[in-house]
């Protein structure tokens, strides 16, 4: 999973029938591990009731597609948790982690 | 699987069904300045070297298949490295 912040919501009247009734959130990823996650924004279906401004954990790929009761969801990202608190070790090893947009969660709460 | 090291932890009260009670750890990817959030079932500690199963196989670490398809999990720690030669 990757970390990101909810920065918006998308409404659409014309959409794939599998997306009917689903809340779609615009997310700015700030901690990820695969090059394919390296995007300014991604759209994820909401499984937990997240709102704008919240930091969330986003599940990517096949699990996201299957998780909402159907295998035919045309999505590849789903919000699976809302972050309450995040802690990073002071010594993170030889390489410091890179966060996007200066959002390194140095504080106990993000 | 991806080799990494536990560098942090995330707490979340509101989680998708099936993730309740699971620990969420931040695992720094070896050789990169990147990290992921992975579910921990092995009680991994900060600083420990671990292997993380990613993708659809990660669900099998939490619940054996095939009845685990509803799990929203694409990364789970599947082993803690003791040593390697």
Protein architecture, described:
The complex is a heterodimer of chains A (about 110) and B (about 80). A 5-stranded mixed β-barrel of chain A has the order 1-2-3-5-4. Chain A has a single domain, classed as OB fold (Dihydrolipoamide Acetyltransferase, E2P), CATH 2.40.50.220. The two termini of chain A are about 15 Å apart. With about 110 residues, chain A is mainly beta. Chain A has 1 helix and 6 strands, in the order ββββαββ. Chain A is about 5% helix and about 35% strand. The radius of gyration of chain A is 15 Å and the shape is globular. Chain B has about 80 residues and is mainly beta. Chain B has a single domain, classed as OB fold (Dihydrolipoamide Acetyltransferase, E2P) (Beta Barrel), CATH 2.40.50. Chain B is about 5% helix and about 40% strand. A 5-stranded mixed beta barrel of chain B has the order 1-2-3-5-4. In chain B, β2 and β3 form a beta hairpin. The longest helix of chain B has 4 residues. Chain B is globular and about 35 Å long. The mean pLDDT of chain B is about 90. At the A-B interface, β4, α1, β5 and β6 of A face β1, β2 and β3 of B. β6 of chain A pairs antiparallel with β1 of chain B.
């Amino acid at each position: 999973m990757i970390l990101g912040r909810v920065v918006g919501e998308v409404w659409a009247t014309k959409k794939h029938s599998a997306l009917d009734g689903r809340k779609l959130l615009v997310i700015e990823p700030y901690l990820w591990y695969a090059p394919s996650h390296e995007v300014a924004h991604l759209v994820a279906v909401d499984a937990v009731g997240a709102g704008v401004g919240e930091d969330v954990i986003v599940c990517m790929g096949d699990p996201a597609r299957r998780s909402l009761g159907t295998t035919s969801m045309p999505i590849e990202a789903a919000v699976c948790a809302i972050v309450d608190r995040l802690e990073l070790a002071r010594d993170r090893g030889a390489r410091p982690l890179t966060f996007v947009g200066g959002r390194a969660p140095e504080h106990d709460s993000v | 699987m991806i080799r990494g090291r536990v560098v942090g932890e995330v707490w979340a009260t509101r989680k998708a069904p099936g993730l309740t009670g699971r620990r969420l750890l931040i695992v720094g990817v070896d050789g990169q300045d990147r990290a992921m959030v992975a579910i921990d079932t092995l009680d991994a500690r900060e600083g420990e070297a671990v292997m993380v199963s990613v993708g659809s196989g990660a669900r099998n670490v939490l619940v054996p298949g095939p009845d685990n398809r509803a799990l929203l999990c694409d990364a789970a720690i599947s082993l803690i490295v003791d040593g390697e030669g």
